[in-house]
Amino acid sequence: MLKTEQNIVYMVQEFDRKLRSITIASCAPAPLWLLSPNISFYYPDNIISFSICEIDQVIKHIETGQIDIGILPFEYQKDDLCTTHFFTEHLSVCIPFGHSLCSYDKLTFHDLNAYNRLLWDQLGFWTDLCKRKMPASKFLIQTDESEFLELVKSSTLFCFSTNYASYPDEILNDRKRIPIVDDCANVEYWVVWKKGNTYRF
Questions:
Q1: How crowded is residue 161: how many other Cβ atoms within 10 Å of its Cβ?
Q2: Which end of the chain is more exposed for a tag (fewer CB within 10 A), N or C?
Q3: How far apart are CA 98 and CA 116, in angstroms?
Q4: What's the distance, CA 50 to chain centroid?
Q5: Predicted TM-score (pTM) of this structure
């Protein structure tokens, strides 16, 4: 009997915790930069957790109910899910002035293949996309933000930016920002959640 009562108490506590918490997983950082302040503002009494996951993990976690909100780089439709368009992110490459590619106003991944570049390590699906589209390139991946910014400022290695992920102005003073025109470099983000959770949002 005691064990049964303990189980009931645990289930009630878990139910209450889930009602007071919101878990969000995104395939990239930019959606979290936009979504997190709004979620925190509208749900100040909730415990909110954010994570960056692989695309297949976001899908798995939303389908199994492990997260409340998922963010994907494409529309994902199923009968028990709701989805809505969020925003579009455009990838650009930042190239030191004087480099031959600076004469271009648009570039493709094919143009950039074989050139080495810097990458920040918290980019979600962007990291795999860049490696897949530029297999001949080498990537110097940085985990420390200050060291990454210092390398962007002082080295001649290419780096990336987007319309939502930028740098302090002085960091890119010696670089030209050039849009990458491949379709996969211009991403439409979609927010997805279980229909059963609609009442919560």
A1: 18
A2: N
A3: 16
A4: 11
A5: 0.85
